[in-house]
Amino acid sequence: MFLSRYIILMMFLVSSHAFAEDKPVPILAERIQGHIHPSICRGQNGTLIVVYKGANVLVCSRSDDQGETWSKPTAIATSAKRPAVIREVKKYEVYPGTVDILPDERILVTWNYIADDKAKDGYYERALLYSLSDDQGRSWSEQRLIGPVDGKHLGAVRHNVLPWMGGRWLLPLRVGVPRLYDPETDVLEEYPLVGPGGVQHEFQQIVKTAGGSLLAMGPVLLRSTDAGQHWLPVKGFPAIPDQRDNAEGRFLTTLSDGRVLVTWGRGQKNLGLSYNLSTDDGQTWDARRTVVLLPDTPVAARYYSARTIQVDEETVGTVFMNRNGVHFLKVPLKRLSGSF
Questions:
Q1: Domain 192-339, what architecture?
Q2: Does the 32-150 domain belong in CATH 2.120.10.10?
Q3: pTM of the predicted model, to two decimals?
Q4: Shortest CA distance to 204 belongs to which of 133, 273, 262?
Q5: Rounded CA gap, 267 and 240, in Å?
Q6: Please, are residues 101 and 44 in contact by the beta-carbon 8 Å criterion?
């Protein structure tokens, strides 16, 4: 009898502990709609920086206490400006891309300025732009344009910009082959990325692990151990999309100890955050290790992706959105390893 009561008590305490941990912190606590697309990075001093779309302008919110509290969002004013290469039209949109930290510790934010005059003469352009901050997101440089190529703008960078050799940036584009960009010379070149089958997929994200391997996530997951010269498919990846619309609802996070985390959701009615850890540099995955947090909470997926960053050696944090706002969930890594 005593043992049974003890087991029940321990199950209650574990359940209560899990429930207590799963309390998202609001970054924006109001009803929202449209292409909000929050993204997140961690600055060199531990500051967390979240960027998302406001009223046709990108806004930035910061946390200096590991996501416990967040500053009032401030506008990244340059993101609201129409670039000179885009003609003025009545129907336009500022479309968020991603926020990343560069090796020199500057913060990079990308976005699209979309001009839609199809009804008049078929005109539609989606210029890719960026701005930099050297003070942890407090102020931002004037916008700069990436592209166009052969008269065509590049479109969206959906997940992250990967710093590359020679000061270049690797851009995994929403449409088309990834491209390398040199911000000093404005030179763009294609980055062919094919597996054994010779197929050039679109890749939503390309990351570099702590061990130096590269992972490219598209309709398949590819891995390279020779700086991208050769790629092999990774079997058993739990977040392979069942259709193209779900391909962007996933995010890879490389951890400092060599593990790799994928966060994802599916479809327009997704509930909860799904996590799965690879413990060997992204080589192998086990779908049975998937952990779902906030299973009853709507979390936008499909064209939106919840994005996770490492907060410290023991913790990750995920920014996500739903119709009720933008939220941040801090998660101990041990919870994602199957133990409390």
A1: 6 Propeller (2.120)
A2: yes
A3: 0.91
A4: 262
A5: 13
A6: yes
